[in-house]
Design a protein that fits this description.
about 160 residues, alpha+beta, about 25% strand, GAF-like_dom_sf, GAF domain-containing protein, GAF
Length: about 160
């Protein structure tokens, strides 16, 4: 992780301690910090156990209805929520594991990662970002995203 990215991640973590959080801005800051173009934030509806879209960027409008509500275990976000760990693809376009839903390929992104928003082992949602090129996220990047997810969870409880 570069110093620039480290400072940006620190700035994101600091912003998550504010009382009035703009989730769209948080997502845009994360996308920028990790040199990505696309992203989503889903919050877990504790009553229905469904992930509900809270913020998105770079998603084609016709796909929004398909990812507004995601069941646990479906697609990258749903699997990250189910496993409570990061789910990553170097190239979503060529993936044939079944993890990515068919509609996900219509985003035209390649390197992508979804991380759970966890606090003390409890799921609060997911954060997903992607690049338009094949990419493997580093362990430092995964850890930073998980830390951001933890701080997002704390912010939801504040």
């Amino acid at each position: 992780m570069s110093d620039k990215q480290g400072l940006t991640v620190d700035a994101i973590l600091t912003n998550l301690k504010q009382s009035n959080i703009e989730w769209q801005q948080v997502l845009e800051n994360v996308i920028s910090a990790f040199d990505c173009t696309t992203g989503t934030i889903h919050f877990l509806d504790q009553g229905t156990e469904l992930l509900q879209i809270q913020a998105h960027k770079g998603i084609p409008p016709f796909l929004i209805p398909k990812l507004s509500t995601i069941p646990i275990g479906k697609g990258m976000a749903g699997i990250a929520a189910e496993r409570k760990e990061a789910v990553e693809m170097c190239n979503l376009q060529t993936d044939d594991s079944g993890v990515a839903r068919p509609a996900a390929k219509e985003t035209k992104v390649e390197g992508s990662i979804a991380v759970p928003m966890l606090l003390n082992g409890k799921l609060y949602g997911t954060l997903g970002i992607a690049k338009p090129v094949p990419y493997d996220f580093t362990e430092d990047e995964r850890n930073s995203l998980l830390k951001i997810g933890e701080e997002m969870s704390k912010a939801l409880l504040a």
